[in-house]
Amino acid sequence: MLKSNRRLRRCGKITAAAVLVSFLMAIPVFGEPPTEQQQNLTGIGMRLYSDSEVDTLIDDISDAAYKAIEQAAGEAARAAFLASVEREASAMREAERWRAEAEIRLQEIQTAKKAGRKNTLIAALIGVLGGLVLGVGGSFLVSK
What we know:
Elements: H1 2-24, H2 51-143
């Protein structure tokens, strides 16, 4: 209990010192920016616009903004369409590749079946002829 009180006192002292130092330091503080227009470097004074000129400028800027938004939306739609076309083309190329691979595998299967039939026929012929040779040869050997 005594140790924790010492630690808390030390923490309190450090906190108090930090607060006092922060009050004593001279920190620059900036106010709000000026609301009137500053004079430019040429020394010519500020130009005042009438309400109609301000409205005209706002309308012009709004029209330009709407046109820019429409153009950006059109370009985004065009980009999305091109991306979808590219994905579709990629999918079609992939499907064509799979189809060609399936045809190759089918031809390989047909070739293997033909070779299997031929091998089976040759094995059967060899078996029959071998049996015939052994049978005839055995009968000649037995009869002598």
